[in-house]
Amino acid sequence: MHLLFVCTGNICRSPLAEGLALAYARAENEALGAALTASSAGTAALVGHPIQSSAGLVLRGLGGDADGFRARQLLAEQIQTADLVLTMTRRHRAAVLELAPRMMSRTFTLREAASLLAAMDSTWLTNVPDVTVRGRQLVAALAQLRAARVVNRNALRDDIADPIGKNLDTFQRVGDAISTALLPLLDALAGKPKATSG
Fold first, then answer.
1. What are phi and psi of 62, to 5 degrees?
2. Which CATH number characterizes residue 131's domain?
3. Could you read off the pLDDT of 82-95 as tens digits, one per residue?
4. Full residue range of the structural domain in which residue 57 is found
5. Helix ranges (DSSP H) in the chain
6. Which of 87, 108, 147, 190 is the most exposed place for a label (fewest CB within 10 A)?
7. Number of other residues whose CB lies within 10 A of the CB of residue 153
């Protein structure tokens, strides 16, 4: 099961999400670490650059690392080989679909996917033993739910703003927003039951 994260420069938001996903998979168990992979790219990438220093600090604080990371430009081939594409904004989602129009059912903003998952009874995923099969079934369920969803009247909530040029507190808020949206999706991919409130 391969996740592709997309932002603009591929030095802040998307490598942070990639690093979190990889750290989660490694920490969870050996089978998940082998079956769940992640990468990231930018719609206007600063190709070859490492993760931005503040983003790297936030990622390390959240339990991940970006050692050896280098920014990559988004290409159609990367999109087409991903099982799930998670973008930081609606504009990035549009850029993905411009390159690979047939990937609509596998492309979501990160917050959009998290919102759809929250509205779904995902307990059935715990009964699917194979990570890739579970992931593909989850993606199909998210796409089906999106097709039936009422149009979001505040679509800006689907976007995670670019922290570039801002202070460390802003990077921390962005890192927390990515983590909050991503971890429930990773739990679902890992076959963990959704936490219930109360």
1. -90, 0
2. 3.40.50.2300
3. 999 999 999 999 99
4. 2-189
5. 13-28, 30-35, 53-61, 76-80, 90-99, 110-118, 131-148, 168-189
6. 147
7. 6
